Amino acid sequence: MIHTLSELAARLGKNQRLLGLDVGTKTVGLAVADPGLIVASPIGTLKRTKFTQDARELGKTIRDYSIGGLVVGLPLNMDGTEGPRAESVRAFAKNLLERPDLLGWEAEIAFWDERLSTSAVERFMIGEADMTRKRRDEVVDKMAAAYILQGALDMLANQRRLAAEADEDERDDEDYDDRD
């Protein structure tokens, strides 16, 4: 099922994690969140072959890491519209939803705007990490998946913080009303 990110996080069971996907034409970068949904860590790259085999590999990762939801990077155009790459990613997600037998799980998915994620990661790897081209090629997809997932986790953390502040303000208002 497709959800908003907040809905997806609310559906997670105890100790379930989110798996970030950077879906490309040749590979799928993978990153996993810690159980507290604070930090995203790159875990690998899935070389794309046939969908059936790709989904089975993804299912193994889902089981190995106690995944409760997928955050799939959606490559929007700079103006926010969806082009052929976004359509391809949506088709990949739709196929996952239609084949729980391959995943071993009823997929729970949220999309995350991934504009410029790969280029941001590449800039970091060139400028800050001073990686060789060969090494960048080996890690860019899983690092992009971590970048995508970390953006989603940061948004969830911000939502939790705002909700906690609103609850605190409400309690302060109740305390003030009790003094009248």
UniProtKB/TrEMBL annotation:
<keyword id="KW-0690">Ribosome biogenesis</keyword>
<keyword id="KW-0540">Nuclease</keyword>
<dbReference type="InterPro" id="IPR037027">
    <property type="entry name" value="YqgF/RNaseH-like_dom_sf"/>
</dbReference>
<keyword id="KW-0963">Cytoplasm</keyword>
<dbReference type="InterPro" id="IPR005227">
    <property type="entry name" value="YqgF"/>
</dbReference>
<keyword id="KW-0378">Hydrolase</keyword>
<protein>
    <recommendedName>
        <fullName>Putative pre-16S rRNA nuclease</fullName>
        <ecNumber>3.1.-.-</ecNumber>
    </recommendedName>
</protein>
<comment type="function">
    <text>Could be a nuclease involved in processing of the 5'-end of pre-16S rRNA.</text>
</comment>
<comment type="similarity">
    <text>Belongs to the YqgF HJR family.</text>
</comment>
<feature type="domain" description="YqgF/RNase H-like">
    <location>
        <begin position="16"/>
        <end position="121"/>
    </location>
</feature>
<dbReference type="Pfam" id="PF03652">
    <property type="entry name" value="RuvX"/>
</dbReference>
<dbReference type="InterPro" id="IPR006641">
    <property type="entry name" value="YqgF/RNaseH-like_dom"/>
</dbReference>
<dbReference type="InterPro" id="IPR012337">
    <property type="entry name" value="RNaseH-like_sf"/>
</dbReference>
